[in-house]
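Regression report. Comparing outputs from two consecutive submissions.

Submission 1:
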Amino acid sequence: MDTQQVSAPPCAPSPESGGSTPSYGVIHVHVRHTTAFTVVGNHLTRHRTLSLLAIGLAVHIQSLPDGARISIKHLAARFPESEARIAVALRELEATGYLRRSRVRLRNGRIVTRTVSYDRPGTEAPTVSVPRPRTGRQDTPVPPAAPPASAPLPPPPAPVVHRSAPVAHQPAPETSPAPAPLPVALPAPTARTAPPPPLPQPQDTDPELHRSASALLADLRRLAPQLTLSERDIETLAPGVVTWLERDAHPDTVRQALTTDLPVPLKHPAKLLRHRITALLPPPLPGAQDLAPLQRPGGIVIPLQNCDLCDRAFRSRHPGHCRDCRTGIHFAA
């Protein structure tokens, strides 16, 4: 009985003091962080509907300081995921309330995207005024002469602002509330080096043709939605279309000339139609005298005769037989 059983398995190590070691699953090794850490709620890390990419992206955004750039291009340059996958993850965070993006106008007139990150969805964010120019971090003053490399560059295209559940360190400013997001203004048209050619003008002011031309221009948006014109543009372009109709151009021909091979994107539909109406204007149809047979030298035209045998038309000064019938009669003889 005192013989040692060398074949028996060794005993399992005793658990450490203060806890028990599980027999399966993950085992955590906890280390107390004192610097460079981020507090994240389990409602985010254990979310049931968010994808792993969205959860990781939300944790990364919450770890960034206020004013960091989190545009899709910046995130795609930072991580191996594509811009399309990052855009889908950002939309997931917006749908679940962890992120909110809006467009605001700065005091200098520039429109930027303002991104607000929430530690917990449903937290009421304080009223935010028009963004002030950022010269440095508010918690750590930085001399303006030598800003650190991590300081944000004003103005960022997509700043992020974190809104934690207790927002005690960010009191609401006393300025007026932020205005509603405004649409981005279209750029001013480029200057022309030469004036555009004049629009063709009809020879007769027929109200029926003018009505047909206006209806044709207004109906172009059925074929191409990007060719939606205002009433003023239709009134301006109608005389050019009337000129096409005066020259016996079929309405389907006009539609095909105005809607074929449209540029993408189409920024100025009225200018494009004005150019096509002017540059593609067909000539008038030739008259009967233009289609008459050419006269031979001396003003003599050989008339047409009908063959006595096959009734084929041929040119001759005297009636009789055509060339083929004359050849057949010769061989028969």
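Submission 2:
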Amino acid sequence: MKRRTSAPANDAGTSSHTKPLTNERVYHTVIVGGGFAGVGAAIRLLQAGFDDFVLLEKASELGGVWRENTYPGCACDVPSALYSYSFAPNPRWSRLFAGQAEIKQYLQDTAARFKVMPHVHCGQEALRMAWQNDANLWEIQTPTHTLRSQFMVLACGPMHEPVLPNIPGLPEFKGEVFHSSRWNHAVDLTGKRVAVIGTGASAIQFVPAIQPKVAELTVFQRTPQWVLPKLDQSLPRWVQLLFKALPTTQQALRGATYGIFETLNGSMQSLKAMQQIQKVAQWNLERTVKDPALRAQLTPDYVLGCKRVLQSNQWYPALVQPNVRVCTSALAQVDGHTLIADNGEQVEVDVIILGTGFEIAEPPIAQRVHGRDGRSMADVWQGSPEGYMGTLVEGCPNGFLMFGPNIAVSSSAFIIIEAQLDYIVDAMEQIRAKGLKTVEPRPDLTARYNAAVQAALENTVWNAGGCQSYFIDRNGRNSTVWPWTTLDMKRRLSRFNVHEYITHA
């Protein structure tokens, strides 16, 4: 399978006003990653008066997950009114749930509007980040530079590195094969025999988009998914004009959407509550799939919410089409053009599309970050990431991690981003005001905090819902989810409490 490579290290796509990178000075902050978290960090630093920073982006343009994923049907599963910065509403969304191209354009437009681009350096992948004890600085190596900074903000995103299954014979497959996040648009699927491996959030979007054009479509489903209806619709011109003329109307929609998602997030604390919401997903399945045998194959045996909650109005209608076959078994082996499932079923295909998700529980960036003792973050974690408030990691002074351990919620990523940035910027302001050089989490408070997190997760649907999911790491521990409300998250992250940290002046 061909893998997309990073752009050459020539700062392609950066602003003409961008100052060149230099090894000769110490930056205040280096931001790693040019998705919504990284751009948000840049905006907040500028607003706080911290303009001595650079943003490193490995690709040729900003975009993050919305640059990487260009598969047919790619769209957000959070309404656009909530999936956007609270300080930068976009009245021009064409749908309640925006598509990939619109979201990427919004990110790039917002970066330009808030004067972020002069700080952006594209084609600059952060290859190794190491804390220098003697100098009390981070050293960040890129293909062309060794940068130094007082602070580092890792904004690499949780859905970044695709999971590529280790299936015997797959590398020797005679046809085309690619991951959904590395979609090969040069491959014309018209009239082809196509196999899709996986039935997650990406597959339920691209399968309905490609189904009408392929000759045969085989979906390898290891575990069925609960799928809620998606309350999506286009937004007519008059609504866009209303949002522009009266921004409070879009703010009201954002508030209502937040309330709905916060109710869903709160319901995750209770299996009984989720079993009630599950009835809607059951209805969504039954109204479309009339064949009892297929319906049984598509009915999960776990509680809604144990895996990521999915929404679609096209998934089930696509699966009942005559050119679609659902194989309720994992793919075990590839032999030439023949795919062999665990249950012995075989199918001949021309194209394999991997809808196998991303590395969530073990973020790949952790292998590149080396803390105070020289060990990588991944070596310290040993498969079970731990942090403090989902934002700082023990032994990594002045290092901030966006979407860190146990910070994910069933709501908009922007709720997390903005809460974390409040915390990070307040930390930097307090460090400056108090004349401190470094802060890092106290081991005792970090241990107590993580014990409280795990205790709070014990009876939630993520832990007790009866499934295996990417929320649970390879050691069987939930190192992904924030167990409380997002209101609680915003309260806890609204103020950086210096006394909770080890400080050096």
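Expected: both submissions complete independently.
Actual: both completed, but the second showed a warning that disappeared on reload.
Relevant detail on submission 2: Residues 1-14 have pLDDT under 50 and may be disordered.
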